[in-house]
What does this fold into?
Amino acid sequence: MSSPMAPARLRVGIISAGRVGTALGEALASAGHDVASLTARSPQSRDRAVLRLPRARVLDLPGVVAGSQLLILAVPDTELPGVVDAVAAAGPRPGTIVAHTAGAHGVAILEPLARLGLVTVALHPAMTFVGTSDDTARLASACFGITSADEIGDAIAASLVLEMGGTPVRIAEADRTLYHAALAHGANNLIALVTDALTALTAAITGPAGERSATATVDGPDSGIAQRVLGPLVRASLENVLEMGGDALTGPVARDDTEAVRRHLAALAALPDRHLVDGYRALSARAAVQSGASRELHELLEEHA
It folds into this structure.
């Protein structure tokens, strides 16, 4: 998707060709940019780059910096400060656009490069990446948290995102940590929640020690039955909350069914993983607040804390 404010075709360098960097490089190449070079620190990254960015040369960091008009710093948050210093030491040309993909940071972390005359922006795709070409396709439905130092940076960041098919959402520098916390809570903690639910459901089907066979279906034993049982429910719940917000809440907490919650706590506490009940209790307490549950239910959840 092009934009009337789209920059001229740029020579792009990617540091480095991990899951995120490769997907963004593929999307920028599809938009007509010249993804000319990249760094690849592992055999997996090299293989990924050869397959999906065959025209890009694998170079060291100074080589990528020297030949790029747009630098994408697609490295983990913890590595970003060191990479910024390395880019600055490589002598980038003033006017080079440099964008990082870290969710937790705005443009302040790129200040050493801004002092050298580079245009600095933060482009964080609010998406999970698995390392295949599906990642690139998902960018078309993704929002990007963008942050920049001025209106010029805003326009450049928004244009690049639109060209990749995404939707730019401006996040103030001071709010990047809150933005990142919200995404981590909604996506990463969701995985922890569903993992716990699958553990409990598997125990209910097979017995805590796995002494019963996985399940009885028309096709015979099925070790993935817990996923099959929970999957449609979780997907429907996710769609409902995204559409309806807190009104989508159902179940014993929404009904203020204290006795059911008491039995849940006891059953979960009997499982080998003694911490599983802690997650249930903490989230039930949040749901109780959101649904206006009775004092009795609140006290029950506090009593088991």
Notes: The chain is about 50% helix and 10% strand. The beta strands are 11-15, 34-38, 57-58, 70-73, 97-100, 119-125, 143-148, 167-170. Residues 176-206 form the longest helix (31 residues).
